[in-house]
Amino acid sequence: VKYLEENFEAGKIQLSPEEISEVRKIIDSIEIVGNRSNDRILKYLDKDV
């Protein structure tokens, strides 16, 4: 509840196409390694481990 108002206001932020492009470049440059969840959790999600 402490940051509810701040988080709500963050939803109103509008980025320019240039800003969106820059954010996308940064995100795309990050190498994703490993599973989203650990093997123990994946068993319950019916996923191959």
- Helix segment tally: 3
Strand content range:
under 5%
Arithmetic mean of pLDDT: 88
Compute the number of strand runs: 0
- Main beta-sheet annotation: none
What is the radius of gyration computed over CA atoms, rounded to a whole number of angstroms? 17 Å
What does this structure look like?
- This protein has helices at 4-10, 17-28, 39-44.
- By secondary structure, the chain is an all-alpha fold.
- The chain has one domain (4-44).
- The longest helix has 12 residues, at 17-28.
- The termini are far apart.
In a few lines, what is going on in this structure?
The protein is mainly α and 49 residues long. The protein has three helices and no strands.
Ordered list of secondary-structure elements with their pairings:
Layout: H1 4-10, H2 17-28, H3 39-44
List keywords for this structure.
mainly alpha; 49 residues; single chain; 51% helix
